[in-house]
């Protein structure tokens, strides 16, 4: 066997090994979801995190009020990596919280959570967050509206709002506010802030956003799940600016 054939076999073995790891991890993540055995008057989907049942109500007429798999990927990571990413007593903000699963799991893990989204999904978001955290969490989550890039500095002045983590799941897709989202990440991310961001790849805007994101942030890939078309990233600031303004 020549060197070229040997290298090809090694590469093929790595590919198969990677596919097996991907399939196993994706299966573990998706197994956290369950459906009610009996349909009641209010449809919901169930999830198991922190050994607790979480019931999520979706609103199929609103894009942001549907739970996408990226949220499950991020929640799985938070729960299974508590030693490295300890949520207890941390200040956390979620961008584009949608149905609220990531905010709920972060709250159950002990974080002080600010859960944000647009006004049209806020009612469903608040309902899910309060329903699943009441009496279960150390801190009551704050649910509030946030328009990316618009008066973020007034809503969250750096002198009084310092977040340990910015969480985001499936906020990058073919919408017209990608620059505003980038500016919001940039404003909220201070010197010691970590960004945990799960993203489903669909079209070119996702790829170009990642390229531009790398120009402002140190970016590390934590998960790559081709079977779900999802990647999970960790990011931090490249520049070390002042923490107040």
SSE blueprint and pairings:
Blueprint: H1 3-30, E1 33-34, E2 45-49, E3 52-56, H2 69-80, E4 91-95, H3 101-108, E5 112-117, H4 119-133, E6 142-145, H5 152-155, E7 165-169, H6 178-188, E8 194-200, H7 204-216, E9 217-225, E10 230-237
Parallel strand pairs: 4-5, 4-7, 5-6, 7-8
Antiparallel strand pairs: 1-2, 2-3, 8-10, 9-10
Structure, explained:
With 245 residues, the protein is α/β, with parallel strands linked by helices. Helix content is 37%, strand content 23%. The chain contains 7 helices and 10 strands. The strands form 2 sheets. It has a 7-stranded mixed beta sheet with strand order 6-5-4-7-8-10-9, sandwiched between helices. Strand 7 (165-169), helix 6 and strand 8 form a beta-alpha-beta unit. The chain starts with a helix and ends in an 8-residue tail after the last strand. The model has no long low-confidence stretch (mean pLDDT 87). InterPro entries: Methyltransf_16, SAM-dependent_MTases_sf.
Summary of the model, kept short:
The chain is an alpha/beta fold and 245 residues long. 37% of the residues lie in helices and 23% in strands.
Feature tags:
3-stranded antiparallel sheet, 7 helices, alpha/beta, globular, 245 residues, 10 strands, 7-stranded mixed sheet
Strand order of the largest sheet: 6-5-4-7-8-10-9
Number of helices: 7
Number of strands: 10
Residue share in β-strands: 15-25%
- What string gives the helices and strands in order? HEEEHEHEHEHEHEHEE
Distance between the amino and carboxyl termini: 64 Å
Could you say which overall geometry the principal axes of the C-alpha atoms support? globular
Summarize the biggest pleated sheet: 7 strands, mixed
The share of residues in helices is: 25-40%
CA radius of gyration: 19 Å
Secondary structure category: alpha/beta
Q: Spans of 5+ residues with little confidence (pLDDT < 50)?
A: none
Instruction: Report mean pLDDT, rounded to a whole number.
Output: 87
InterPro entries: Methyltransf_16, SAM-dependent_MTases_sf
GO molecular function: methyltransferase activity
Keywords: Methyltransferase, S-adenosyl-L-methionine, Transferase
Pfam families: Methyltransf_16
């Amino acid at each position: 066997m020549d060197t070229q054939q040997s290298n090809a076999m090694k590469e093929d073995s790595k590919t198969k090994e990677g596919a097996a790891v991907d399939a196993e991890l994706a299966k573990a993540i998706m197994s956290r979801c369950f459906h009610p055995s009996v349909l009641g008057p209010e449809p919901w989907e169930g999830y198991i995190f922190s050994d607790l049942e979480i019931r999520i109500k979706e609103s199929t007429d609103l894009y942001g009020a549907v739970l996408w798999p990226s949220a499950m990927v991020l929640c799985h990571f938070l729960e299974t990596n508590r030693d490295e990413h300890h949520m207890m007593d941390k200040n956390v903000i979620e961008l584009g919280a949608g149905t609220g699963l990531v905010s709920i799991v972060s709250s159950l893990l002990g974080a002080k959570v600010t859960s944000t989204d647009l006004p049209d999904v806020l009612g469903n978001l608040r309902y899910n967050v309060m329903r699943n955290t009441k009496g279960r969490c150390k801190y009551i989550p704050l649910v509030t509206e946030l328009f990316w890039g618009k008066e973020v500095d007034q809503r969250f002045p750096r002198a009084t709002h310092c977040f340990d983590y910015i969480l985001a799941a499936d906020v990058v897709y073919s919408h017209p506010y990608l620059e505003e989202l980038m500016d919001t990440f940039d404003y909220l991310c201070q010197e010691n802030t970590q960004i945990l961001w799960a993203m489903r790849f669909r079209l070119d805007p996702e790829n170009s956003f990642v390229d531009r994101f790398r120009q402002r942030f140190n970016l590390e890939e934590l998960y790559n799940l081709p079977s779900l078309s999802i990647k999970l990233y960790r990011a931090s600031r490249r520049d070390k600016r002042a923490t107040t303004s």
